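Thread: WTA complex, take 2
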Amino acid sequence: MNDKSETLASLSHEERRYAPQEDLVAQANVTQQTYDDAAADRLGFWEKAAERLEWGQRWDRVLDWDDPPFAKWFVGGTLNASYNCVDRHVEAGNGDRVAIHWIGEPEDDTRDITYAQLKDEVSQAANALSDMGVGTGDRVAIYMPMIPETAIAMLACARLGAIHTVVFGGFSSDALASRVLDCEAKVIVTSDGGYRRGAPSGLKPAVDEAVAKVAQEDADLVTNVLVVQRTGQDVEWNDSLDVWWHDAVGGASTEHTPEQFDAEHPLFVMYTSGTTGKPKGILHTTGGYLVQTSYTHWATFDLKPETDVFWTAADIGWITGHSYIVYGPLANGTTSVMYEGTPDTPHKGRWWEIVQKYGVTILYCAPTAIRTFMKWGSEIPEEYDLSTLRVLGSVGEPINPEAYVWYRDTIGAGKAPVMDTWWQTETGGHMITPLPGVTHGKPGSAMTAFPGISAEVVDDEGTPVGDGEGGLLVITEPWPAMLRTLWGDDERFKETYWSRFADQGYYFAGDGAKKDEDGDLWLLGRVDDVMNVSGHRMSTTEIESALVSHPKVAEAAVVGAADETTGQAVCAFVILRESALQGGEEASDDLIQELRMHVQKEIGAIAKPRQIMVVPELPKTRSGKIMRRLLKDVAENREVGDVTTLADSTVMDLIKDGSSSGG
Ligand code: WTA
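Output below.
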């Protein structure tokens, strides 16, 4: 973290300031008054935000924090998330409004789905799932490409009170199997395949493998696999499990009466990487999550549902997609764009062509995408009419000032403000962000806590640091969309987030942060063994376990090294087994490639190391802990830092000599 703080120290001397545009201020959803109101009465503020939704039964208590860290919000209230995202817009006379402009990767493969159509399809899917025996509290795994059916399946689960767990379609069959087993999902929703860079790529084969693995542990767990036909590619078919979506959902009734569920009824589990190898199942519940995602979506982006065209360019398989493609936007009756493909298929102007064609007014994406577009050159977006864009968002990792300014100038015509939103899978929704009608933005700073959110930067003892100082980011008060626990593991929940500052009762986010001279917040990245690659969380230990599971690898250490485009990149150091070395296996390119592919098979392509260095030793402390900090120095081609706590201080010389050969 040290070198990072130094960079950030220079960054936060950033002098550029962007006052909010006058036209935005004049009609802004949120003003300074909102901050003041929330500061005066935090729970009253969230209560008002909750009134934007439709409830069966009103709550009788806003927050129950009697048994921290287990929060209950809107106690006694009942609602249906699917009804709030779909039916109520139809009942309000907006059935003809487009909910989703879906754009497939193959050009001209598009669908516009109105709220009325969405209601029909979600109802059909709910009826089909219900016919498969899915009921309240059951778990359903969703392993899909970016197609409307992914959102429809989620909303169908929510409608039934079933708990969905969406597994990113880029994950391996092993990753899918372990998640299905961990949350005991009885049904898996998938598709034959999806399109990736111009070619169909299979998903069903990975599901078949996962189902076989799951069956070894629990033969009766998975009872059905519901398969959307997307690419038309050949698939293996198991008559006792597999059901086509177009048969089961297509043939179901469009009538389905949603039931009201308790505000604390589980809505979904989203697995995310932690500091150990085993992914954590983050549990979100219905009321608080929907209140915060819908309210933040409306406030952060200054959303006008009647006129805006909103686009979150992320995958539904991540929390950003859950909160800001599905639940937030749909609860607000938004017209959204949903795009299946990559930014350069079939050409590098694809995003901008979409903005122009659909008149996108709000764009939300990750800094890694922005840096990639910068690298490709301003000429590409300049060919398109982007004048409809009025608010821009950034999420997933710190946005460097250069990328921020380029985004604002080139994509936002020098006037669309950039909302740098800090939050996490665990927080459910935005926590620290500028707001379009209020904030004087500083490139690179996420600025201030959202109204009704209490964030602080503290030192190791939990004491707030002064302006101009750095420390650890904590959240000091519970918030509506906070995770409620880790699936099946209350102890790990307490240990991971609440033990570091147990005396103060603070939530420890795992991020370093700094307050600048004005008290504004700058996020400095993770302080634990979690990497951030293209805005995706990866655990160093998880990738290490994958490497060590290869028969030729004896030991492995993984670090996230700074990368110009992806923020961080996975760099691995491996010690080969004697047997591999005796077999004449040097650090050959073939072997490196084999190990990279092995990680891809075990976890998924996103985890594939950029670089693998074969080394004779790893730097360890006397207690045997790998000093990743030193490896990071090597991976980033820096002078190696302090080695005095190493058990053997000569190890680093061996590593530096060795590492040059196998990169
Ligand atoms: C990082 C994604 C700096 C941070 C929504 C956090 C950010 C982790 C920002 C959560 C931001 C996210 N500035 N860092 N605006 N947004 N992060 O769970 O390290 O995939 O802890 O949630 O991403 O990643 P997750």
